[in-house]
Structure formats: structure tokens, C-alpha cells
Q: What sequence folds into this?
């Protein structure tokens, strides 16, 4: 890892996402990144994030709980947003929803090389069903 603490690198990564600075994503994500066992590469990873933020323009990545150790960051991300288009198989409810994502990142040379992510889709479904 670099001299910069991993937690700080991760916070800067979240800021990059929240500011939609897609051209800067390569500063934080490896060209050969793997997401949930699927090799996406930087361009595929970026496309995934762009699709998410297109579906939910007010999507902000907020770290509610984060642990950084060695080359791994574990984080619970909290979202409070209003989907405008279909997202994760759900039609937009027209009202704000809240949900969490639990995610682990493995870093190499201060860049994300592997991501394991679980989104609480049951929470989304329960809010849409109301």
C-alpha cells in the first residue's frame, strides 16, 4: 500500500463517485477489477456505476461503518434516494427509499482490484410494496 492510509484512499474514492468524476475512477480502481466474481475491468465497473447513477440521479455513497485493515476495506454504505428508472429489477416507486450495501474491497497498489457486494434488496422490496 502507499503511504496514504487505506481508509483515506477509500474516502476519496467515495467522493469521486459522489461527484460523478468518472474520468478519475482509474485513480482508485484497477484496470482488471473483479466485481462479485465477474471480471468487469475498469470500463465495465464504470459502466455499472454510471447505470446506477442514471437510474438514481440523487444516489450518494455514504459510509455508515468502515473498517480498513491491511489491503481490505469493509463498509456498510447507506443510501437514501429516489429512483427515477428501473433499478435492480424494481420499478421506481416515485418516493424516496433507503437501503444498505455491505461491501468488501481488496486493494493492490492503492487501487481496488476486487469487490464483493451485497445490496439489501429485501429492504427495497418492502418499501416499494407499501
A:
Amino acid at each position: 500500500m502507499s503511504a496514504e492510509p487505506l481508509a483515506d484512499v477509500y474516502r476519496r474514492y467515495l467522493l469521486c463517485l459522489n461527484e460523478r468524476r468518472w474520468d478519475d475512477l482509474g485513480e482508485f480502481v484497477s484496470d482488471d477489477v473483479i466485481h462479485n466474481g465477474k471480471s468487469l475491468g475498469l470500463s465495465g465497473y464504470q459502466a455499472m456505476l454510471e447505470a446506477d447513477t442514471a437510474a438514481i440521479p440523487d444516489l450518494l455513497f455514504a459510509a455508515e461503518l468502515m473498517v480498513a485493515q491491511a489491503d481490505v476495506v469493509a463498509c456498510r454504505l447507506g443510501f437514501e434516494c429516489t429512483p427515477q428508472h428501473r433499478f435492480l429489477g424494481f420499478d421506481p416507486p416515485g418516493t424516496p427509499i433507503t437501503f444498505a450495501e455491505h461491501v468488501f474491497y481488496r486493494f493492490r497498489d492503492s487501487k481496488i482490484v476486487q469487490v464483493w457486494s451485497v445490496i439489501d434488496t429485501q429492504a427495497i422490496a418492502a418499501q416499494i410494496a407499501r
Summary: The mean pLDDT is 94. The beta strands are 29-35, 38-39, 62-69, 72-81, 97-108, 111-119.
